[in-house]
Amino acid sequence: MNSESAAAPVVPAAAPVAAEAHKPCANCGAPMYGPFCYACGQPEKGMVRHLASVMSDVADTIFNVDSRIFRSIAPLYFRPGFLTTEYFVGRRTRYVTPFRLFFFLCVISFFAIQIALNLNDAKFDLLKIAQNRGNIEQALTEAELDKNLQDALSRLEDARKVPEIPAADAAELDQVIANLRQQADQRRAWIKRKQEAQAKGEPPPRDPNEDTDDLSFDGTPWDPSRHPIAVGWLPAFANAKLNEMAMRARDNIKAARNDPRHLVAGIFSVLPQTLFVLMPLFAVLLKIVYIFKRRLYMEHLMVALHSHAFIFLSLLLIALLSLLKSAVGAGGLRPLVSLAEAAVWTWLPIYLFLMQKRVYRQGWFMTTFKYGLIGISYLILLCFGLAGALVATLTLA
After folding, report:
1. For residue range 290-332, what is the model confidence (pLDDT) as tens digits?
2. Which terms are listed as keywords in the entry (predicted)?
């Protein structure tokens, strides 16, 4: 009996197996009991592994929206301020984190908008013909003018037969035709004045459309060789870069007049970065306006993240409804889709107002006053942001 009891404690001989199961940390040597070292915090996984495994971790970090996305989208859209108040009281596990929700909807919405713009070519073709004054305004004879006008009118009549252009846009197409005829009449009058001046041996009148796309500095048209941009306190390479950007801007403006799709696509390509910059500034506005609430900046940032996530979700719905409207054409569903589109636009400012009231818990008067103040301030910031996006599109694209 004694020998058996004495032999019983020998069981710890399995200790080498346990020690072997817990590999030592490569950094400090402590046993690893999980994916991270309890002593120094170094992760077990490093970057030296298969690329597929690394990309899987990156995608999981950014787009970790699994089943929680379905529990987050509905309250985000239909319950103003609900996700934010839930986050503040500590109920966070059930929902996608604010930044991931913001980032996910930002990416998805801009993909949808880009697809809607690309698939709506028929509408853009109308805009292209309406803005393409070059063929008409550059005509030098009445015969050339008549030919160019007839070509443009023929393309418009062909566009009228495209199924993607519903009957509801017929009035817009008629307006485009009227504008083209008016431009042609103005050009015809200038051609006649030019011919009369040449017949009398007088200098011809100045072409009203000459150099309309040139950039001007100091009241003089910009020219890379004769009148370049030259800022005295900048080094030569910086001035050369400015002139290079000015040349791109001039070319892009001319191209945009013939086909605005490139300009629109360019603005949308830099708009996400613009909103990424404006979003924390929106939190700063909330911090200033609600300074007496004594909330941390990060609390206002959560409000900003959820607000912008809702805005991106609204843009996504608008893009999807635009695609649906193009798909149904002039059918009976088109009025219903238009009504839904109007409802989404109407719900957007109402939601943001109700969210602000629910999160900050102030009366209707103060909420209305602060909502208007924040809205006007943010609108000004947005205008500056869009202007910067437009300049970046023209000078860098």
Report:
1. 998 888 999 999 999 999 999 999 999 998 998 888 777 656 6
2. Membrane, Transmembrane, Transmembrane helix
For 251-275, how does the pLDDT look when each residue is reduced to its tens digit (9 = 90+)?
777 766 666 666 666 676 667 777 7
Tracing tokens 């300049």 back to the chain, one arrives at 391
The Cβ of residue 166 has, within 10 Å, a number of other Cβ atoms equal to 16
101, 309 contact by CB (below 8 A): yes
Q: How far is CA 99 from CA 63, 104, 105, 152, 271, in A?
A: 10, 8, 10, 49, 18
Conformational region of residue 231, where left means phi above 0, alpha means psi within -120 to 50, and beta covers everything else:
beta
Look up the pTM and report it: 0.66
Domain boundaries, the chain: 14-48, 68-120+260-396
Residues 6+ apart with CB under 8 A from 308: 102, 106, 275, 279, 282
Distant-in-sequence, close-in-space partners of 3: CB < 8 Å, separation ≥ 6: none
Of 58, 55, 56, 29, the C-alpha closest to 42 is: 29
Distance CA 34, CA 42 (A): 11
DSSP string, 117-162: HHH-HHHHHHHHHHH--HHHHT--SHHHHHHHHHHHHHHHHHHHT-
Which among 97, 152, 144 is positioned nearest to 125, based on CA atoms? 152
Task: Please report the pLDDT score of residue 262 as a whole number.
Answer: 65
